[in-house]
Amino acid sequence: MRGTLTEKFRAAFGDAGEPRLFRAPGRVNLIGEHTDYNGLPVLPMTIAQEIRIAVLPRDDGRMLLRNTHPDFPPLEFANDDAIAPSPPGSWDNYAKAAVAGINQCLTPHTRPGFSLLADADLPNGAGLSSSSALVVACALAYMDALGLSLEHDLPRLKLAAMLADAEHFVGTRGGGMDQAVILAGTVGRACKIDFFPLRVESAPLPDDCEVVVCDSTVKAEKSGAARSLYNMNPRLCHLGCELVRTRLAEEFGEEVEVERLGDLWYGPLCLTTREAEALFMRAVPEGPVPLVEIARRLRQKPEKVVARWLEEVPVMDGGYDILARLRHQAGEYRRVETARDALFAGDSAALGQLMNESHASCRDMLGISTPELDRLTEIALEAGALGARLTGAGFGGATVNLVPANRVERFIETVGRRYHEEYLGRDGDASIFVARTSAGAGPV
Ligand code: GLA
Predict the structure, then answer these.
(1) How many domains does the chain have?
(2) Domain range for residue 135?
(3) Residue 178 appears among annotated catalytic residues
(4) 91 Cβ closer than 6 Å to some ligand 1 atom
(5) I need a surface site. Which of 75, 119, 245, 435 has the fewest CB within 10 A?
(6) Which of 89, 208, 187 is nearest to 438 (CA)?
(7) Helix or strand (DSSP H, E) at 75
(8) Which atom of ligand 1 is nearest to 37's Cα?
């Protein structure tokens, strides 16, 4: 579809007036994967690719959704108290998440509808957070329909924290990284984000390197099949946290307040990373732990452990490697803090090394890599990247690469040839690009 977004809106909805325009950028995470939901830091940046929407309020309470992308059919729902999720993978879930979340948190007196057209140059399923960008854009549109403005009525970080919870509506147990960087990102800087409470520190990007994104072109749609794969790590981390809490209660002779793993560092115990690692080893056996053993340690029935902590995680006869997940948390926490310091020190070599270590941990400890992502990172390092790792939820999507500025052209050419032409056997030039930051989401 050609033309401006306003023209496309008029074509979709008839000449209904001058729509309001909003944008929300995608993001690429430099380092800090699967840590946010445990309250441990991350280091992403916005990218120039974004979701744009044109929207007009309606007074009949109907939410009409149109998308310029042919994969996303027209959909509609009513803005009432009974907003229920559509089947996983249905794109209206992101608009529903935003609207239901705002209704729940802000309890507006009216329930206006809207006519909304979404358009994007941000690929979906590439690990670049197209889903959260859509949630944020829809939230801005709905706030506008309610007469609320960003910053004036609702600070950016408050909205980000609210939408992180709201997005659980789609069934993924994600953390708050994506909504925070999409709303609070700044041009030319990365965001070091801490959680509970949400804090954002902007950090300089290297001036001797570019951040290059390579899409493996294996789709990882968080709302679709990848959803239960994604949820496995948050669920096992929460279970690991319970094992740690149980162990602490035994050691101290009383309950210690640890709501999430990050509280070990930031809560009353204030552990160092070394101390947290030692505690993990006392609390959880090495290797896969059978369900009955987990239940015995928690003094619970196995069915209770499944119902309370594992939920949709498939039953594994051999057990669950919880210690590996906990070790990833400790290692990734240290890497994010060191990477933040490397950014301020302009030490690209150190940052690259940390990114490589992060990829290895995501692959070996979390099991979220794929053969394609592993191959793509290997080729990237051979093609001159200082660091290469998967970015985002994993199970497909893209890699993020730190490439010396003077080698970028050769890098793109070599990775295109060796990964796309030789490994996948097809041309994929558009899937490799230099990431350029953009401002946080807002009105256009
Ligand atoms: C997804 C989630 C985030 C985060 C990443 C992994 O993008 O939405 O909250 O957990 O995966 O780091």
Answers:
(1) 2
(2) 2-205
(3) yes
(4) no
(5) 75
(6) 187
(7) strand 75-78
(8) 10
Give the distance (Å) from ligand 1 centre to CA of residue 123: 16
- Are 7 and 150 found together in one domain? yes
From residue 233, alpha-carbon distances to 109, 167, 242 in Å are: 39, 17, 14
Same-domain status, 180 and 297:
no
Give the model's pLDDT for residue 418. Answer: 94
In the prediction, which pLDDT does 212 show? 98
Atom of ligand 1 nearest to the CA of 36: 10
Tokens read off for 374: 């592993």
Residue 34 CA to ligand 1 centre (angstroms)? 6
C-alpha 247 – ligand 1 centre gap (Å)? 28
Show the low-confidence residues of the chain (pLDDT under 50): 1
Assess whether 170 and 275 both reside in one domain.
no
Q: What is the pLDDT of residue 372?
A: 96
Residues 58 and 147 placed together within one structural domain of the fold: yes
Q: Write the DSSP string, 155-199.
A: -HHHHHHHHHHHGGGGT----SHHHHHHHH--TTEEEEEETTTTE
pLDDT for position 246: 97
